[in-house]
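To: structure desk
From: M.T.
Subject: fold request, one chain
Message: Could you run this one when you get a chance? Sequence is below, nothing fancy, just the single chain.
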Amino acid sequence: MKIETLKNRADFVRMNASCKKWVSHGLVLQAAPNDLGKRRVGYTVTKRTDKSAVKRNRIKRRLRAAAAAVLPLYARDSCDYVLIGKSQSATRPFESLKNDLKWCLEKTGFGKESGKQ
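Reply: Done. Structure tokens follow.
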């Protein structure tokens, strides 16, 4: 199943209000069920993370790559995911970043191996 991208601010606000959240070294994952029957993912890197737009864009690219590698295999259908970048996301080894995402999926209960939510 293809993973769509969250783009509307309203989706991000809804996720922030009614989601499960888990923090790891490389990223923060927010996850919540949706009624659309699709997997969707969004990415956020704030100016608080880094003032430089170049570094924030690098973090966002790394988060996109990690999500593309992990979510098709481990994410559940009918769920929305928001990956929030941290300053360590830029320098953390890519395998560790992928493992952080897997760990967060497992801990929030929104991974495929996790039981029903």
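Reply (cont.): The longest strand covers residues 27-33. Let me know if you need anything else for the meeting.
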